[in-house]
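Checklist before submission:
- one chain only
- standard amino acids only
- sequence pasted in full

Submission:
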Amino acid sequence: MSQTPVLKIPESVLVVIHTRDWQVLLLKRADMQTWQSVTGSKDFLHESWLETAKREVLEETGIDTHSPECRLEDWGIENRYEIYPAYRHRYPPQVSHNLERVFGLEVSRDMQVVLSPNEHTDFMWLPYLQAADQVFSPSNAEAILNLKHFSR
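Returned file contents:
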C-alpha cells in the first residue's frame, strides 16, 4: 500500500549562516549539486518563521541556534518567487509561488557543521562576495549581498 506524499507548504525560510567577518557557509545540494544557504519549508501552517529557521538550521547543519555562540536574526525580508516547474509536484496543484523569509545566523568559524546526507554532500566557507556568485538562487545571492547591511 503506497502512502500519499505530504505536500509542501509554500512558505519557506532562507538562512544565511555567516561569521563576524562575513565568511558565508554554503551547502552543496545532494540532488542538483548546486550551492546554497540553508532553506526549508514550514512543517505546518502555524509554525512560526523563527521556529522554521531554527529547525532547518539544525536539520541541515547540526548547528543549534540556542548555543551562546549563535546569533539568529530575522532580517524582515520576504521574497515571493515562482516555483520551478520541476518542483511543483511537491506542492498542492493550485500552488505556483512560494513566500520566503530571510534570516541571518552569525556563528563562530570553528562551529562544527554536520550535514544531513539526504540533503547535502559538502559544505564550504567563502567570503560573502564569492558566496553570492556561487549560489544558484537569485534570492539567495541577494540575501548574501545584504549581509553587510544586517550584521554588526
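Reviewer check: The chain has a mean pLDDT of 94.
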